[in-house]
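Milestone M4 deliverable, item 7.
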Amino acid sequence: MNLPNKLTLSRFVLTAAFLAAMFTDFRYHVTAALLLFSAASLTDYFDGKIARRDKLITNFGVLMDPLADKILVCSAFIAFVGLRDESNGGQSWIAAWMVVVIVARELAITGLRLLAASKQVVLAAEGYGKHKTISQIVAIIAILVYHSYLDWDGLGTAIFGFNVFGKPWITWFEPLSIWTAVALTIISGTLYLWRNRHLYLQDM
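Output delivered:
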């Protein structure tokens, strides 16, 4: 097994460790989850970079890399629905409808790619899709930072707690990143389905 595929498989392991940290009550467990998610996100960057540089692209990688990405991101967002922010009236870390939109988009696009594959058509990733993925990762990291930076003593406050527009900048950046991710998820999914509509309309 080549290095990119090993990195892809490690993302499944890191996703499981991330979820374990999220739902295990120990000191700094959200910080641990943040570190694990960040490490998993880096494997996503490096496995593709190494595979292209060293010409190590395989059918396994083509199949498993996007699957590992979707499992990592969707697992994080789904986990956030089950967590409550006691400082904000016990609300979920993210609205359930937003997660439904994100997961539904990923399932729809995966279904479209399977349909295309059955017709011997390969659907390449588009620019909007890549921006969507980046925005989702940024949103997840922002959520984790927002819920953990106060545990880092003075360091967290110094980096993420200084005031911008009258309040700690992370408190407005976190919801902004979430809304950006949801918007790009809807836009990218809609465009992808529309541009490839011939694949499913001809079977209706």
